[in-house]
Specification:
Elements (H helix, E strand, L loop, with lengths): L1 E6 L6 H16 L3 E6 L5 E3 L5 E3 L6 E4 L4 H9 L4 E2 L2 H8 L1 H8 L24 H11 L8
Parallel strand pairs: 1-2, 1-5, 5-6
Antiparallel strand pairs: 3-4
Length: 145
């Protein structure tokens, strides 16, 4: 069985790339061949008939080290087994979505408010919003973007 280690084409950070190379090396010691391929290789797409086409048929599994939500879904839909799965990647890529997924699982977490989403460029946060946050959480507090 041959594996695919899929990385992001734009991330050139040494720590990020080291993970892929280390996984490749460890699989080799186990007798499992792997290829490191960037997401710009277009391993899957939708054709003119609306069908998912995959160019990853030679792989039995994929170590998915990217956050490309479209490619992960296409590869899974083509039958390729992903680690991390499309669903796991989607849940873990967004801090608040991860928090929602962990809620009710017996994990202690601090009270957390979701930031109101804004789709208007340049819109300012209303003073009332700050006052509600202050009333609900008090100080000190942590704000994440």
């Amino acid at each position: 069985m041959k594996g695919l280690i899929l990385i992001n084409a734009y991330n050139k950070d040494g720590h990020y790339l080291n993970q892929a190379y280390r996984l490749n090396k460890e699989f080799k010691t186990l007798g499992v061949g792997t290829d490191i391929v960037a997401n710009n290789a277009f391993l899957a797409y939708i054709d003119d008939d609306g069908q998912v086409v995959s160019h990853a048929e030679e792989y039995g599994f994929c170590i998915y080290l990217d956050k490309d939500k479209y490619l992960s879904r296409l590869l899974e839909k083509s039958g390729l087994r992903l680690y991390n799965t499309h669903d796991a990647t989607r849940k873990c890529d967004d801090k608040y979505r991860t928090y929602i997924e962990l809620s009710g699982q017996g994990i202690a977490m601090p009270r957390t408010l979701p930031a109101p989403l804004c789709y208007t460029r340049g819109a300012a946060v209303e003073e009332l919003t700050y006052k509600k946050i202050e009333r609900e959480l008090g100080y000190p507090l942590v704000v994440k973007t």
